[in-house]
Amino acid sequence: MVNRRISSDLKEAAIRMWEHGWELSDICAALIVSPRSMYRWRALFDELGRVTKPPSVLRGRPRIIGSLAIQACRDVYSRNPDTYLKELQWYLAIHHDLAISIPALHSNLEKAGLTRKVLQKIAEERDEQLRTDFKNCIQNPQFFSGTGREFVTVDESSKNDHTTARRYGRAPIGLPAQITDVFIRGTRYSLVAALSTNGYIAAKAIEGSYDAAEFFSFILDDVVPQMNAYPGDQSVLIMDNARIHHNEALKEALNSQGIMLIYLPPYSPDLNPIEESFSTWKAYLQANGVLIRTHDDPILALLDSCGCITAEMAVGWFRHAGYIIEHVT
After folding, report:
1. Domain range for residue 17?
2. Structural domains counted in the chain
3. What pTM was computed for the model?
4. 83 and 42 Cβ atoms separated by less than 8 Å
5. N-to-C CA span, the chain
6. Distant-in-sequence, close-in-space partners of 234: CB < 8 Å, separation ≥ 6
7. Tens digit of each residue's pLDDT (9 = 90 or more) over 254-303
8. Can you tell me whether residue 262 is helix, strand or coil?
9. Domain at 26, CATH number
10. Is there a domain that residue 123 lies in?
């Protein structure tokens, strides 16, 4: 039987005919309905006194959410940023007597500036007092200019064949977007770089991973010659607490050049501007994956790709991490 829309009047007429003694088969033949539909309508009528389901309390015409409800949404997401729209929909229905569809709720949240973003996970082990002390230090006008020009941040990143793979594509509705690609990670390469407000001032790539000796060599041979004694520009080296970064010989070598060394608080990649640069660098690798993977010299290709990082980008990352104070010119 072909699916068709059946009016409530016809459903009610069918039930009345059944109640007046008509045979089920005769009703189905006369009205062109199925016995299964008749039983379903009868069950609804017996339970609810009507032949159709009542509209859901959580559905209704899309409408603009009032300011009080929007503020409630802001409060919900400030406490629990990972709240699903379905959960928010129930919250609004129960606590604010507001019925709204999921599409309308999404649209209103977008208009209110509550946009969907990738969650940034924060380690529970992070020490907020140490982070506050660090921020107070780098923003102290007695020690630093507020322009960010004194700082150089260093860290490592890595790539394999999966790094250059694109994750999204387009295809007609109902069809997958498919490509043929490698399913093994391939050779691992590591990049270590130093970032200032001028961009990358030094970079080195190797096959495999860096150890303490190779990192020490990079700092002394590639980074230190680009730096100055404190309090000049590029005179303060910022590093995280990776094991290979803690080296007494390295501290002594920096001290002999008048270079200040500051370690980041534990679990605080957001305070290291170079982390954002690595995200941009890896996005560049994805955009140019074929060229990178087929290059005759992978090391040279990786070093060339560092040119995607500009001074303008670097200034933005240093500002975002708190090294640049806005009112300083």
Report:
1. 8-48
2. 3
3. 0.61
4. no
5. 77
6. 149, 150, 151, 152, 196, 201, 226, 227, 228
7. 999 999 999 999 889 899 999 999 989 888 887 877 676 777 888 898 89
8. strand
9. 1.10.10
10. no
